[in-house]
Design a protein that fits this description.
about 140 residues, two-stranded antiparallel ribbon, alpha+beta, single chain, globular, Dna Ligase, domain 1, Arc Repressor Mutant, subunit A, three-stranded mixed β-sheet, 5 strands
Length: about 140
């Protein structure tokens, strides 16, 4: 059994072929793909794949903490197989999304001291170095 299938089983997810391939795609493409990206790239290999299956599978992965939702833009939902605490930067020129390390222990917050924080998201927007230097 593949390492991905074992990972799914350890998280109480039945490792169907589509689920295995969707997880592998997420892990092999850390560009924070959308449902459309995943569907378009896997439907060639899995002709019976539907967008509904991709949505449902990603939702299952998120509920089991195998993936996280990245919503930098209101009309664009992306997915990330890296569930560790880290930030995301979206380039306003090319649209690429990059991971960056954050020290969430050093992140100063005020006004939520008595709150129970269940999720942390740090998003930045701007121009990536590739686009910035290509204009010179």
């Amino acid at each position: 059994m593949s390492e991905t299938a074992e990972r799914l089983k350890r998280n109480n997810i039945r490792p169907s072929y589509a689920r295995i391939r969707i997880m592998e795609y997420l892990m092999e493409h850390p560009v924070h793909p959308t449902v459309e990206d995943i569907y378009q790239n896997l439907v060639k290999e899995i002709p019976t794949l539907s967008k509904t299956t991709v949505y449902n599978t990603l939702d299952l992965f998120v509920r089991h903490n195998l993936a996280r939702v990245v919503t930098i833009e209101e009309n664009e939902t992306r997915y990330d197989a890296d569930t560790t605490n880290h930030g995301h930067f979206k380039c306003e020129t090319c649209g690429s999304v990059y991971d960056f390390t954050i020290n969430d222990d050093g992140l100063e917050t005020k006004g939520i001291g008595d709150f129970a924080v269940t999720e942390k998201h740090v998003y930045f927007k701007g121009i990536c170095k590739k686009c910035l230097y290509s204009k010179e």
